Amino acid sequence: MNKRNILVLSMALSIVGGSTAAVFASENAVHSTKNNVVTMTSKAGNSTNQTTVAKVANGKISDEEAVKMATKALKDYRGLDAKSFGEAHVKRTNAQEDFKFFMGLVSKEDAAVLKENAKKDTANVIVVQFARAEDLNQPMGASNNIVINEKTGEIVSLTAFTDEDRSSETTINDAKVKSAVINFFGKQQKKVKENTMKVSKSASSGTIRVLCALGDGRDVKMTISLKNYSVSSYEINYDRLITLPSVAKDYRENFRGLKVN
Questions:
Q1: Rounded CA gap, 208 and 177, in Å?
Q2: pLDDT truncated to tens, each residue of the chain (261 aa)?
Q3: Distances (CA, A) of 216 to 42, 81, 120, 236, 238
Q4: Interatomic CA distance for residues 258 and 150, integer angstroms
Q5: What angle do CA 177, 226, 85 make, to 5 degrees?
Q6: Gyration radius of the chain's alpha carbons
């Protein structure tokens, strides 16, 4: 298994333990038979971009609406224009679909927690994945992923890595991390409990991982670029799932509290 596959599996297990497996599902959405492709047109200047999406009668949020919401989120939070996106693939899922899949892949301790999480009421979510044509046949091709809670309309997860996120920087400025987290969620009218912020002890490819809790108590995992301290991804534990023991160990060993006043 190559390094990227290992990373994605690791992230997926973390997601199942702390929030949702929807993002992991979206990594494979292009190849999923449950995936819908919707066609929409967006204009930028004199150019016209074709993205793809199909309309579904069921559900409170249509596929077209979900794509519009996802496009706006990428624009508002990452400054990405729709003309740079690839095809928009839409999938509807629920964490319950992933608990059974991961049950046979994790340790007994993690499996026990998965069983407890499976007893919880979990939300139906819409995963919107924007994938470039050249990545469609790649199992782990690059894509922008947005997860929407269908009942509330909240953007509960966003992943949008770009070449701009890459940096050789390894020094972590705690004050800038704190500011980046607070300002990012401030745009969403969400408060962050400052005393809950933790950052990974080291950087990887110019990015760091950040943990925090929102004012309503929900946990959040984030990825921040050290190049400009922009948020590359975030995942809200909207189902309030119990963190897997293996993930909790990772948090204890590889994260530290921010050293800011």
A1: 9
A2: 333 333 344 445 454 444 444 444 434 433 343 566 664 444 333 333 344 444 444 458 999 999 999 999 999 988 887 667 778 889 999 999 889 888 889 999 999 999 999 999 999 999 999 877 666 666 555 568 999 999 999 999 999 876 666 677 789 999 999 999 999 999 999 999 989 999 999 998 889 999 999 999 999 999 999 988 999 999 999 999 999 999 999 999 999 999 876
A3: 36, 31, 18, 11, 10
A4: 34
A5: 105
A6: 18
- Coil, helix or strand at residue 71: helix
Map tokens 């509330």 to a residue.
152
User: What amino acid occupies position 251?
Assistant: Y
- Fill in the amino acid letter for 158: L
Say if CB 64 and CB 51 are below 8 A apart.
no
| 29 touches 129 (CB < 8 A) | yes
Output the CA–CA distances (angstroms, integers) from residue 5 to 58, 106, 155, 238, in the order listed.
34, 16, 26, 25
Residue 135 φ/ψ region, left for φ over 0, alpha for ψ in the -120 to 50 degree band, beta for the rest = alpha
CA distance readout (Å), 222 to 126, 208, 213: 20, 8, 11
Tokens 């994938």 label which residue? 131
pTM of the full structure:
0.80
